[in-house]
Amino acid sequence: MLTTDPRYAFIFDMDGVLTDNMRFHADSWVELFRDFGLEGLDAERYLVETAGMKGHDVLRYFLDPEISEAEAARLTELKDFLYRIMSRELIKPMPGLELFLDHAAESRVQLGIGTGAGPRNIEYVLDLLGIAGRFQAIVDPSQVINGKPAPDIFLRAAGLLEVPPSNCIVFEDALPGVQAARSAGMKCVAVTTTNSADAFREFDNVIRIIDNFSGLLPIELCALLNQEQPTTLS
């Protein structure tokens, strides 16, 4: 068992990390944007270019850089409604997740979530997964000024967990999220649900690249905090 001095924390992005659901989000955005005549936008482009961003930033990127807060909120809620309808029977925990969370708790690692999802979607996913009570801190875009790739969400999570950024490991599937972790001074475990392993190799803060949580041990990850070269879990 790890000692509590120093303290460690794992901060998880939610979508594409705790559950493999990013395709459902992508399909929902594509359906929404199709109503605005954006026929050239497909799910792959959304996943590569904006996965992990908060809804307002996705709308600015693809639809209108000057979109108002009110209109962005309305369209994001419409998209989220489509997402929940499409995914309700399909949301499942990532393989190995529950055992990994068990081992982390046994090792006294603090657990948090730093996600671009809104509170309603967070509650929706965590309730379906049955893991809502596992986390000591949950941070969403409403609690910070800037969303990913800015570091705000992860830094707030670390602050709530009372763990220095250098002792935090972020779990991310999206490139803006890995950038946010790097800007926060945090190491990262990259999850290949949204991007290929090769897409993460340019990031010097990535200490491991995984397909899922099967066979992953919290104590080994904490020992990798001072290493800089990414490795792939086979």
Give your account of this protein's structure.
- It contains 10 helices and 6 strands.
- It is of the alpha/beta class.
- Strands 3-2-1-4-5-6 form a 6-stranded parallel β-sheet.
- The longest helix has 19 residues, at 69-87.
- 45% of the residues are buried.
Uncertain segments of ≥5 residues (pLDDT<50)?
Answer: 1-5, 228-234
Count of helices?
10
**How far apart, in Å, are the first and last alpha carbons?**
25 Å
Share of helix among residues? Answer: 40-55%
- Total DSSP E strands: 6
Strands of the biggest beta sheet: in what spatial order?
3-2-1-4-5-6
Shape: globular
How does the helix and strand content classify structurally?
alpha/beta
Summarize the structure.
By secondary structure, the protein is an alpha/beta fold.
Main attributes of the structure:
41% helix; 234 residues; 6-stranded parallel β-sheet; alpha/beta
Give the topology:
Elements: E1 9-12, H1 22-34, H2 43-49, H3 55-62, H4 69-87, H5 97-106, E2 110-114, H6 119-129, E3 137-139, H7 152-161, E4 168-172, H8 175-183, E5 187-191, H9 197-200, E6 206-210, H10 218-223
Parallel strand pairs: 1-2, 1-4, 2-3, 4-5, 5-6
